[in-house]
Amino acid sequence: MSAILQAPAASPNSPSPPGPAGPAAANAAAASFASLTARLDYLSPPDLEQVRQAYRFADEAHLGQLRNSGEPYITHPIAVAAQCAEWKLDAQALMAALLHDALEDCGVSKAELIERFGSPVAELVDGLTKLDKLQFNTREESQAESFRKMLLAMARDVRVILIKLADRSHNMRTLADVPRAKWARIASETQEIYAPIAYRLGLNQTYRELQDLSFRHLHPWRHAVLEKALERARNRRRDLIQKVRKEVETAFESANMSVRIGGREKTLYSIYRKMDEKHLSFAQITDMYGFRLLVPNQSDCYTAIGTLHQLYKPVPGKFKDHIAIPKLNGYQSLHTTLVGPSGVNIEFQIRTEAMHVVAESGVAAHWLYKANEPDSPMTARLGAQWLQSLLDIQNETRDAAEFWDHVKVDLFPDAVYVFTPKSRIMALPRGATVVDFAYAIHSDIGDRTMAARVNGEQVPLRTELKNGDVVEVVTASVSAPNPAWLSFVRTGRARSKIRHHLKTLAQTESEGLGEKLLLQALRAEGIERFPTDDSTSAGIWDKLLRFTGNRNRSELLVDIGLGKRIAGIVAKRMATLLSESGEKPNAVLMTRERFNAESSGHSTVIVDGSENASVQYASCCRPIPGDVIVGYLGRGEGLVVHAEDCAVARKLHNKDSERFIGVEWSDEPARAFETGIVVTVNNGKGVLARVASALAASEADIIHIDMGQEAAQETTDLRFVIAVRDRQHLATALRNLQRTSSVLQARRSTAAGA
């Protein structure tokens, strides 16, 4: 797979035209299958033969192509397959690794791959292939769509992303052969997209390598300076490290414990990031070196930590138990920082051999265990929850950019660990709220969330959770997602579920409004009801949908409700089609409806405030029951209700009069409505409190207060947005304000900012 999703020719593994042998001859040995065979001893002979066939096919397809380095192009697929072999992936994955550029760069068809190697291999290769044949409006849209395809293929079969990460790793190792002008774009994409995915799936070795290689090519000078500084520090501390190692070995021999000791050095990128984020000098980084202890079983991990704490003093607050509470990606280990000789802090990681495999290889550990222990279920579910959540998000999000936006929020490594009332541990991204927690349990719980308690105390739904919190969600059958939740939720799952619910609700309401508007327009054409559901009517609906360009009747009604289509035009077309089929309009009905609409101002839509997304009340005039109102069908906005004397509505009417329809208040509005008032007062102590008290006595809720930015003067205008039932309720509130001391004047305001 090429390193740049939008520009295959610019990637390090994109083929160059055939040229002189030169360096290619020197590297011919690397292009042979023999260099890979030594790593495939875990495969059965039939599987090995299948991989060999895939190699021959790829070698022939790439014949004559060279990489930018001058090596035969086949060296890249072999290197990718070799990395997959390190993870002990199966024969199908290895075949896909060898063939992963065949569809993209060699003109091989998917059908040909299916015929030669079977459908599973072809699907893996297709999941790795970019969407070159589709046309996108922007680079960003193309990139988002490509990543969506890759992630969804990964959710269905995680081998896709393992091959992709192996491909990206080899491309980054050979990035020096690419023109320097392209380094920043490729390295940034690796650092921002692929490295976090590797971390999220537990591929820590790959994660560290991708980060360091990205850093090397994004900031070559900084990387070189830090590399020299680290080498000097390594030489200075060699004796110290050897002394600590010897003392630790002696301590465990005395305790009769079997332990394998290894070194761990902080990566250059993690050193650089720590220096940058905490404004430290290189000399102030004290945890560049550490030790990793591998012990036989889990209980030995805790015994080992006791032995170490007896040998050196632990640094308070630096002990972490990731065995009892694993990280999001399945990582398990004990971490402790000890004060070693000369007062130098040294970090130790203690884990079992099995934990070490998972720590380094993440989801790939599943295949490593299958190779050694075919029946072991230990890692079969690694990353499964996140991968499944990708499919859940896709089901509710069809827009590629929105999908990628949802997924990115889940790629951050920081996490908090909280508990359900039944002591089940839940891992969530740092900054996650009660609503994120509710959706993490189940989408139905999230949709019906009404309130929450954290550690037994009632808290707002936007409360950010902290490590160790015990969270209890209170649900109600009448509760529904609130659009305001989108401003504070952190997880992609919660965000996509909320948006999906709101879109579904808006579509349902818009369809109902569209049906009402179309039926009213049909009556004005002399048609009393929609055509009945029979074969003749089906033909009329089909012709109407071809005329409007909609896929089905529901979509047409939604478009009418959203104002994307004018009900009158659609009604006229339907009346013509009905007339052609022999159904004549009712002249009496036509005359009555048009007379009512034009002469008596008969309303076409009744509003009461319960319409949610399908009807909006204009903020420019803030209409309330009792006002004379008009309705404007904005393009894609649904029905917007204005006061008849609103200046904005008059301008819209002059420009777009056919989009206005009659609307009327219901006799019993379902809720209070917002309106603006201006209260002019004499400045003085307690004035605002008295005004607020007068509004409270009038049972008018205060939504917003604006006192302006001017310096205090003798008189001041206080601007309120209040909620009232109707004009009569507003008049009562204004009278109460007029009677309040220090109030000079109280009046209604129709300005949007009031």
Entry summary:
The chain is an alpha+beta fold and 754 residues long. The protein has 30 helices and 20 strands.
How would you characterize this protein structure?
The chain folds into 5 domains: 8-201, Hypothetical protein af1432, CATH 1.10.3210.10; 225-372, Beta Polymerase, domain 2; 491-599, no CATH class; 603-671, no CATH class; 673-749, ACT domain (Alpha-Beta Plaits, 2-Layer Sandwich), CATH 3.30.70. It has 30 helices and 20 strands. Strands 1, 2, 3, 4, 5 and 6 form a 6-stranded mixed β-sheet that branches. A 5-stranded mixed β-sheet has the order 12-16-14-15-13, sandwiched between helices. The protein is extended and about 95 Å long.
Tags for this entry?
754 residues, Beta Polymerase, domain 2, 6-stranded mixed beta sheet, 5-stranded mixed beta sheet, 20 strands, extended, disordered N terminus
What structural category characterises the helix and strand content? alpha+beta
Give a quick account of the main beta sheet: strands, pairing sense, barrel closure: 6 strands, mixed
CATH superfamily of the largest domain: Hypothetical protein af1432
Number of domains: 5
Distance between the termini: 57 Å
Radius of gyration: 34 Å
| Amount of helix | 40-55%
Q: What's the CATH architecture name of the largest domain?
A: Orthogonal Bundle
Tertiary shape: extended
What is the number of helical segments per DSSP (H or I, 4+ residues)?
30
CATH topology of the largest domain: Hypothetical protein af1432
Task: Tell me the strand percentage band.
Answer: 5-15%
Task: Report low-confidence residues grouped into runs of 5 or more.
Answer: 1-30, 131-137, 369-382, 599-603
Number of strands: 20
Give the averaged pLDDT, no decimals: 78
CATH class of the largest domain: Mainly Alpha
